[in-house]
Design a protein that fits this description.
- By secondary structure, the protein is an all-alpha fold.
- α2 runs antiparallel to α3.
Length: 72
């Protein structure tokens, strides 16, 4: 699965971003179970999923802060 760009994530609305976060977390969870059994061929997938989750959380936080500044 290719890496997701922050630009692509910023184009999503809040619901789509939350859904994407759930999917990424589930994928990371599944990858963690494959690792000890030796079923995971590309261990770099773990880092890719972690980075994707971090990007999504960063964008979500940026949106929260923008809303706070607009209200305050």
């Amino acid at each position: 699965m290719p890496q997701v760009k922050a630009k692509e994530l910023r184009e999503l609305n809040d619901d789509q971003l939350a859904r994407r976060l759930d999917e990424a977390r589930e994928a990371l969870f599944n990858l963690r179970f494959q690792l000890p059994s030796g079923a995971l061929e590309r261990t770099s997938e773990l880092a890719i999923r972690r980075r994707e989750i971090a990007r999504i959380l960063t964008i979500a936080r940026e949106r929260e802060r923008a809303k706070e500044q607009a209200d305050g």
